[in-house]
Amino acid sequence: MNCQEIIEAIEQRYPLKYACDWDNPGLLAGSREREVDTVYIALDATDQVVDAAAECGAQLLLTHHPMIFGRICSVTTDDYVGERLIRLIRDDISYYAMHTNYDVMGMAELAADRIELREREVLEEVLEGEGIGRVGRLSCPMTLRECAEFVKERFGLPNVKVFGDLNRQVERAAISPGSGKSMAEPARSKGAEVLITGDIDHHTGIDMADCGLSIIDAGHYGIEHIYIGDMERFLKERFPGLRIYTAPIAQPFEVL
């Protein structure tokens, strides 16, 4: 099969029209006609990931976060994006990213399933009733501390950051994988008692806690790493003859 056949399957399930207007998903490097028998899947196209894709003989690298967001005026080894692009093109590896279109059409439900969220609804609509995040009811009331421990267990995390009273009882919850600062107000307006997300800054955390919305910051990678296994399953179901390698699940930082 060629790269375009895989892209068509991906875009049928996760259409690009659901991507946010600031986003840049799609084929970012290489040829649609490239014959593919091996795919490497990762959250980000880091140096280590680009090396691993080449080492396993992948002809297609598939990531969640696009390596290219803004305008590129040159492709040289003078900067990390240009250097990675040169390595991908040199090794004849096509590179495809699926970001907010996957967040809307895949990640939101997948993350809500992990925490067994019931009676769920879209947290913030993007298009045609579909959108970013979910809000609903936890399987049972629990303290904020118990909820934080539950999130750690369900996403395989060593730690989370919590804003709010750990002894407070919570039941209505919102979850928004990735960077969820902008989801705080939508979560509060929909009656959530706790928001589970990542990349929460100091002021958002303390202000929302004062307004009655507790926050569990599970990290950007902490929730979104579920993309890797989900896409592996997706490709295996649709292309059983494809060899698939995945980046190991490992936090990109250490807390000492």
Report on the structure:
InterPro entries: DUF34/NIF3, DUF34/NIF3_sf. Belongs to the GTP cyclohydrolase I type 2/NIF3 family. One of its GO terms (molecular function) is metal ion binding. It holds the Pfam family DUF34_NIF3. Keywords: Metal-binding. With 256 residues, the chain is an alpha/beta fold. The chain has 2 domains: 119 residues, Udp-n-acetylmuramoylalanyl-d-glutamate--2,6- Diaminopimelate Ligase, Chain: A, domain 1 (3-Layer(aba) Sandwich), CATH 3.40.1390; 122 residues, Udp-n-acetylmuramoylalanyl-d-glutamate--2,6- Diaminopimelate Ligase, Chain: A, domain 1, CATH 3.40.1390.30. It contains 9 helices and 11 strands. Strands 5-6-8-9-10-7 form a 6-stranded mixed beta sheet. A 5-stranded mixed beta sheet has the order 1-4-3-2-11, sandwiched between helices. Helix 6 links the parallel strand 8 and strand 9. The longest helix has 15 residues. It is elongated. The mean pLDDT is 97.
Question: Topology of this structure?
Answer:
Layout: H1 3-13, E1 26-29, E2 38-42, H2 47-55, E3 60-63, H3 80-90, E4 94-97, H4 100-114, E5 118-127, E6 130-143, H5 144-155, E7 161-163, E8 169-179, H6 184-189, E9 194-198, H7 202-210, E10 214-217, H8 220-224, H9 226-238, E11 243-246
Parallel strand pairs: 2-3, 2-11, 3-4, 8-9, 9-10
Antiparallel strand pairs: 1-4, 5-6, 6-8, 7-10
